[in-house]
Amino acid sequence: MADTSRDDEPGLRARLVEQLPGVPGSRLPSVGVHTGELKLSTRGDADMVDITDGVQRIVGSAGADGGMATVFVRGSTAAITTMEHEPGNVADLQEVLDRVIPTRGEYEHNRLNHDTNSHAHQRASIIGPSEAIPVAGGRLALGTWQQIVLIDFDDRPRDRTVTVQVIS
Ligand code: ZN
Predict the structure, then answer these.
(1) In this structure, are residues 45 and 120 in contact, taking their beta carbons and an 8 Å threshold?
(2) 45 C-alpha vs ligand 1 centroid, how far in Å?
């Protein structure tokens, strides 16, 4: 087994704190996959919904002590990120996005498709549809002031499905 202590490597401060049990020549530990879904309705227009409790419920039902939870929203006008979900941050992030990617503009997607939501597509692509969060001790390894948030950028209310996949 490789030596995992890297303190002798200058500049490398990362260090394994836990390691999968394994003996050379033995079979790898089996991997479990548990998939759950959250269904929710949003108001659209950069509605930011804290989904941490729902994700944690699925992680809990997976019965995994350690592993990785991927949180993914289907669709091209919504995104998943983490933030301190409180009214100030919600207003500030909405304002930043309005400045960087305004709702109105000369958008090709709108022109070519007679659509109105190109800003929603662009915001969703830049923030991204998923986050991968470590699971430790059966819980999401989030900071105290860090929530998992679904942002719906579409310009109308939507029903959304968030897939949570736990690999342990
Ligand atoms: Zn569109």
Answers:
(1) no
(2) 13
What is the three-class DSSP state of 37? strand
pLDDT (tens digit per residue) in 9-52: 566 666 655 555 555 655 666 789 999 999 999 999 999 999 99
* Cα 165 to averaged position of ligand 1 atoms, centre (Å): 27
CATH of 2-167, one of 3.10.450.710, 2.40.10.340, 2.60.120.460, 3.40.50.300: 2.60.120.460
In the chain, domain spans: 2-167
Find the 109 Cα to ligand 1 centroid distance in Å: 7
Q: In angstroms, what CA-CA distances link 79 with 30, 155, 166?
A: 32, 14, 19
